[in-house]
């Protein structure tokens, strides 16, 4: 297994991790993005091909808090949608976490409005097989 750290944009130094492994002779990877605001390099890496099976990323605040999200280096559902466009034609499974608890339902509603069937809100105790 290989793990590569890639800097992302946030108010303090923060990284995303690309975790790569071989399964049955085939490469497969997952990306774990911590706190982030709009960034570039992680999406360039993520858009490289089908070996990226899943991306785990924060979506912390609802749309009516866009100004605060930008100030604190976090994403809203629309901000996430703009970031996912950077993937180009490739559409891996996207798993969301780090939602501020008081806005969880509102963020879920806004994510549903995006109409992207590859975006999933993680649940406590959920097991993901990549």
The overall average pLDDT, rounded, is: 92
> From the helix content, strand content and strand pairing, which structural class follows?
alpha/beta
Assign an overall shape: globular
CATH superfamily: Ribonuclease Z/Hydroxyacylglutathione hydrolase-like
Low-confidence stretches: none
Q: Terminal Cα separation, in Å? A: 14 Å
CATH fold descriptor = Metallo-beta-lactamase, Chain A
Supply Rg: 14 Å
What is the CATH C level class, in words? Answer: Alpha Beta
Tally of extended strands? Answer: 6
Strand/helix succession: EEEHEHHEHE
Largest sheet: 6 strands, mixed
- Our estimate of the beta-strand percent is 25-35%
What count of helical segments does DSSP give? 4
Instruction: Provide the spatial order of strands within the biggest beta sheet.
Output: 1-2-3-4-5-6
**Shape-level CATH architecture:** 4-Layer Sandwich
The number of distinct structural domains comes to 1
Tell me roughly what share of residues is in helical segments: 25-40%
């Amino acid at each position: 297994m290989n793990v590569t750290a890639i800097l992302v944009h946030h108010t303090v130094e923060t990284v995303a991790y690309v975790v790569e492994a071989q399964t049955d002779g085939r490469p497969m990877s997952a990306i774990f993005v911590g706190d982030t605001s709009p960034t570039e390099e992680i999406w360039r890496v993520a858009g490289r091909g089908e070996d990226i099976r899943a991306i785990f990323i924060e979506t912390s605040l609802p749309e009516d808090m866009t100004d605060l999200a930008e100030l604190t280096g976090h994403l809203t559902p629309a901000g996430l949608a703009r970031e996912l466009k950077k993937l180009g034609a490739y559409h891996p499974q996207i798993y969301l976490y780090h939602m501020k608890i008081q806005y969880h339902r509102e963020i879920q509603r806004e994510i549903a409005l995006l109409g992207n069937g590859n975006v999933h809100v993680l649940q406590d105790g959920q097991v993901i097989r990549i």
